[in-house]
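Quick review question:
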């Protein structure tokens, strides 16, 4: 059986690199084969799974420097029947790629907004006056980079090799311990990974019926009382009205555990809508030097 996996393209993105790692892991642990399917945005990657165009998607959800990938969070809330099967954690090392002879001639730098933000210290020190232009992916601009010697892009050294482009500076992210967490997402009815063992994390989101004092405290109190750790909590606008928010949680427990079942039951009494994205394990990605 061949499994199709959506990811952010074009070739050379970090999402593709994470997808290749996952595809190799999947084929080595199952009898499945894989087919990678690049899409031009994170939202389109998730929509491909929701519409049945692909069976899986690998999407970034959080970076250790810049925080959450809001497009992933918003799209997961908007689309029905998506489930997180696994999390992948991959180290990220950005390279400064250009056909220019030196940094002094660079006028414009392209990359994904996350990459630009993760390198803002380096850019401010070495290229304080350049124009920063966000793109859909780290590799989108690489295909035209050799046509303009005043432009540059921030992407991986692997991407520079793929497009045969020179690297002017390596490891330019502001903090050396830079990593991104990806989710492997499927339709809720698909079970392509053996989940018989207890999972280590659960991710969910919920809204509250009204913006009242104590609404969030009452929703989360059961987790504290039952000794369940929340490793991440973040708010996002509902997009219905100013001041209304959704709350995204990462919880260090399996949703099937009795304590979690009790906490979720109490959350139900205080929340307006709850979406459980899934319980899953975290798989670290090792990048060869």
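Suggested answer, residue by residue:
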């Amino acid at each position: 059986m061949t499994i199709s996996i959506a990811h952010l393209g074009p070739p050379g993105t970090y999402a593709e690199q994470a997808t290749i790692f996952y595809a190799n892991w999947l084929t080595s642990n199952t009898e499945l084969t894989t087919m990678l399917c690049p899409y031009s945005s994170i939202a389109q990657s998730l929509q491909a799974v929701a519409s049945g165009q692909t069976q899986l998607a690998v999407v970034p959800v959080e970076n250790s420097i810049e925080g959450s990938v809001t497009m992933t969070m918003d799209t997961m809330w908007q689309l029905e029947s998506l489930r997180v099967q696994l999390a992948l954690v991959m180290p990220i090392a950005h390279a400064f790629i250009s056909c220019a002879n030196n940094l002094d001639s660079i006028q414009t730098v392209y990359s994904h907004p996350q990459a630009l933000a993760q390198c803002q210290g380096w850019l401010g020190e070495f290229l304080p006056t350049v124009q920063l232009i966000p793109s859909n992916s780290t590799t989108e601009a690489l295909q035209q980079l050799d046509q303009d010697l005043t432009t540059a892009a921030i992407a991986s050294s692997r991407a520079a090799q793929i497009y045969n482009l020179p690297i002017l500076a390596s490891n330019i992210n502001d903090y050396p311990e830079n990593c991104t967490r990806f989710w492997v997402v499927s339709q809720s009815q698909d079970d392509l990974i053996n989940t018989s063992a207890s999972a280590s994390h659960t991710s969910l989101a919920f809204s509250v019926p009204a913006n009242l004092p104590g609404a969030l405290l009452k929703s989360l109190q059961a987790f504290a009382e039952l000794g369940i750790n929340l490793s991440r909590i973040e708010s996002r606008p509902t997009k219905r009205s100013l001041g209304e928010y959704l709350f995204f949680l990462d919880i260090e427990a399996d949703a099937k555990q009795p304590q979690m079942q009790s906490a979720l039951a109490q959350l139900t009494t205080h929340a307006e809508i709850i979406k459980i994205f899934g319980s899953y394990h975290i798989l670290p990605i090792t990048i060869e030097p």
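Why it works: The longest strand covers residues 273-284. DSSP finds eight helices and 15 strands in the chain.
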